[in-house]
Amino acid sequence: MCDTVVLRGPAGMVLGKNSDRDPNEAQLWTWAPAAEHAPGDRVHATYVDLPQVARTHAVVLSRPWWMWGAEMGANEHGVAIGNEAVFTTEPTSLEPGLLGMDLLRLALERATSARDAVEVVVGLALVLGLLTRSVAVVSALLFVVFIVGIASAWARGLTIDCGCFGGGGYDPDAAEKYPWEIARDVALLAGSLFVAAVGHRGRWALDHVLFRRTPLES
Is residue 135 scored above 70 in pLDDT? Predict the structure, then answer.
């Protein structure tokens, strides 16, 4: 069983993690420097290709030797993540897909804060159709937090960017934007709750591939 421990103190933070993988499987410490990427570039994860972003952050990773993703790591902005196993009763498939450890690295390469990392993982999982219902619940909780935060700032007369999709900080026109931002987040909250309630296993969703039922299981 994987266990992740975080210790915070005056000098900073320590992230520790054990691994329940094969003891004979070598794990490498990998340093990937920050990089700029051209439009149309793609990143090859362990099994699948994904569109690349314009800039990826520098990361240090502990990863199985054969895997693109990582068990744990940290980036140049101080964001640190440890991978944990997810148990499910859904039938699995041997079809290749995006791994949880791939999501960990993708988040570290794209996030400047813990909130950004959660948004990256949730967004990628929803777009790719991976663990859709569970991720939709997390998405709904995020939008509840955003709505409450915007409403609180509006009620207190603060003029700040909500930072719901990046950004943040002082915004002189914030008061005019608050109603539209709340309406947008309410609509996205409704969409997240709908997906959480009914699920989504479209033809191109990873859930359809990874958790495909056989005739005997149907």
Answer: yes
Mean pLDDT for 45-51 is: 90
What is the C-alpha separation between 200 and 8, in angstroms, rounded?
A: 39
Burial environment of residue 66 by CB neighbours within 10 A (0 to 12, 13 to 18, 19 or more): exposed
Tell whether pTM > 0.85: no
Catalytic residue ranges: 2
> Please, which residues have CB within 8 angstroms of residue 55's CB and are 6 or more apart in sequence?
34, 35, 36, 37
Question: Which DSSP string corresponds to 160-176?
Answer: EE--BTB--EE-TTHHH
Q: Band the pLDDT of 36: cuts 50, 70, 90.
A: very high
How many angstroms separate the Cα of 164 from the Cα of each of 48, 65, 103, 168? 29, 36, 20, 8
Chain position carrying tokens 């990427």: 37
